[in-house]
Amino acid sequence: MAQAKAVAKFWITTTDLLDHVLKHEKRIQLAEPTKDGRIVHRLVSDLFCRYVQLCRSLERCYDQTLQVQKRAVIQQLLEAGQARMLELRTKLQEIELSEFVYVDGALQEQHLIPDDVLAVRPCYFPARRPDELQALLDAQKLPPFIEPGSDAEDGSSSDESEQPEEEQVPVGKGINRPVVKRDRRKERLQAALNLITAHERARQARVRQTNFRLHPDRYYPKPIDEEIVDVPYEFFYRPGQFMLYPVKRTVYNWDFRMKKKDVVHFAYYAPPGWEEQTVRVASVRWPDAKELALKQQAEDDAAAELAQVEAAKRLEEALERIRLNRAAAKIQRYWRKFNALKAQKKHRFDRSKFLGLFDDYEPKLGDALAVAEVRAARRARQPEFDRSFVAAIADEKARILRIRGPALLEDITDFVRAWFREWYDETLAFDLIPEPFQGGTVLIVRGETLTPLEYLALERQKQLDKLKTPEQKKKEADAMKAAKEREQEKKREEKARLKELAREKRARERKEGKTYDFTEPEFMTNAYLTLEETLARYRKDWAFVNELDNLQDLPIMEWITLDKFAEVHQELHAEVHELLKSERELLQMALCKDERMKYKPPKPKKPPRAKGAKGKKRKEPIDPTADLSVESILNELVERNVLKTCRKRTFEDYIGDFNYAAFERRNRLEQDPPPGMGEVRTILQSYLYGMGPLAAPKPKSLCLVGPPGYGKTLLLEAICNETGSTLFDLSVDTCGPIEPNNMAYFLQLVLRAARLLQPSVLATEGVHRAFYKKVPQSEQPLDPAKLGKHLFKLIVKQLKPEDKVLLVGTCDQPWVAKVGPLKKCFDKILLLPRPDYGSTVLLWQYALRRFPTVPRDLDLSALAKVTTGYSAGQILECARQVLNIRRRMQFGRKPLQVGELLDHFLAGTTPQYPIADKEYEKFVKWHRKVDKLAKQRAKVMRERQLLAEQMAAKAAGAKK
């Protein structure tokens, strides 16, 4: 109950936020047109940050709302908000001429941090498939996409590869201590050996016991004096190990010899030679004075001796106390010294932590996990409310049909029959009933059909047309043709004029710069109008609904009744149409018979066919896989090793920081800084909004370019796992066994399966191999070009905006491929950046914190400064190889030093170095050729550099 109130209040707050954002956008539309890109960037980035916050709030409302009718409204708002947010991001990309945008100025104005405007994983991920398709997919035994330890595995994920001698416990499920692999065969042999040994020893014990019982004089020796201690019985038996057959457990190590009995302490028994002596009572005699004096002297001597003994004892105790005090002082001295060193070390630790030299933050995930569990439990109830809503709709429709259906049917029939009578009374004719695709009897009820007076006017015009001469008809036809030609000529002139205006505008923009007008359609898009209309309609419809009273989230039955009443009305119109169509034919036949006219049955009208963009009839492509069932398609793809599974990866596994200096360098210093690894993670997540059940724009294809070890495979697997997509492997190796003639059929089969199992990801690792300029001799048997010939035509071109299918390719040698076909095949081409200092620090922290015994105050700053430029795969592999089990066991006596990690790179048999600037520049140059924004950005930077050189030369000439 409390949670429902909290969700309702949060929704009210979200609607206020939406209203505030729309008002802010209206104020921006009042701004004057400007050519200053910085002003436009500031306004658009401010609006973009607001929409990010709005979409997060709407997403949370959509996730936690159980009332079905309100959830539909929130879904429409969320779809429009996400579309508007992506439109603003695209506008920022056009302004900055880069895929990576920076809005630090808007963050400072709104007092936000970069995490507040990052793309997050939507609540509707991973997407759900129908249960029958998911069960069919789970029944298949799919091979892994990347074999553990294979060369094709991306270097950024090498830290998870299995080692031959030990395997790591997964992070987050316990301490990362090595677990020795069990040798099952050796364990079975050892268990069998132990069982045989136990049986043999038991047999020998039974034989020895029998001999002691049958021949005691031979096997029982004479009693010995020493006490024989009985050894406790221990039977070798492994817990959980079952015997091959029941065995009598015998004490095989028991000594059956007779032991000497302890008869001394035995009751009622006197040992030999022991005699009981009686106590004699002595007679009492009183002592005399001499004896008393002697006794007193003896007592005094004894007291003196006792005093001496006590004095010696006190002296010894004093000496012992001195020794103990000295020992205690020594212990205290060392203890104080230890405490001082410990406090000094803690002070240094706290100072380093305060200065930010390392991060020792350990978040408490208990509260976050509890909140996540509560939200997941509420989210899991949504299907239940959906089923209840569908059942309520069906019951309400059945009730309307049962109660109101007969009366509605009679009313419609009477109205149409009255229409027949009206036509007969005024025109002595019966008009045709419109076809269902035209509107049917609904048009008659609305009065949108031809009236009798209009019918008479048309008939009179037809009679006049019959009286016209051929010359008049030809003249009228020529006049109509000339008017049509004049109209078409006006359209052509208007089109040419608009084209000329657009050309002049582009030329003026190239010469003077682009003018940004906030009232143009590029700013006032359909997404913005949809937000306004949906919010206004919500406030109008829900104005009299108190949402805090409906804490059970029950549907509003009044709206269901109105909708179902209209639907039943439409269905009854369809039923009445066939009945009254027959009656109209009977009436027309009777009328023709009375008027002695020939009856002509009306020609049936066909619905218009859909036409293409140029007015031609659309030809549906022939699908050779139409006759195949879903199960047969899956079986064929599994046999060809196309359907595969991937490891559980997320975008958080792609470790990297943001380039926090990029905004200043780009907008104030007019430089072109490289993006950070964090920006790649953010932009990829923004591309995936359309892979869920909600409608959102998304690219059809995506290509990740970068050197080996930069995380391309990791990002590919993260895309699959974040969206819950089915993975189809379309690499050259997978398509190699397929004949070139069957390649088109194979790709059509893959595309159909991808649409059936959507969301789907078509992965092509090493996509440059499919577009080789010159195929290497070693790969000619695979014929990689047969995949590149059909990839665009049969996959990318066939994808529709509503398809939840994404083509993802990875490439580490793009310069060996043909630029044109590769650029045509992929909508987005991202170049993965090199790790900078911030990303390298995060990578070392992640790599070392996987081992709990590594000191947290290790000097990672210097280590990251030296290793800046090394790929993520090299860093993770270094930590995995250096911090093996043997080295981690030595941490107590030999702390970890930074030099050990550096020695792995430099002191090995083959030293490892980061990618050279010249080699990475090849990737940058190639990316500028294929990416439109990067190409324009490079051109602008060259112009700015040339202008700066000219200004510097002019200033130098003025000084002379």
From TrEMBL:
Chain coiled-coil ranges: 295-332
Regions of compositional bias (Basic residues) in chain numbering: 599-619
Gene3D superfamilies named among the record's database cross-references: 1.10.8.60, P-loop containing nucleotide triphosphate hydrolases
Keywords: Coiled coil
GO molecular function annotation: ATP binding; ATP hydrolysis activity
Database matches in InterPro entries: ATPase_AAA_core, N-DRC_Component, P-loop_NTPase
Record's protein name: ATPase AAA-type core domain-containing protein
Taxonomic classification: Eukaryota, Metazoa, Ecdysozoa, Arthropoda, Hexapoda
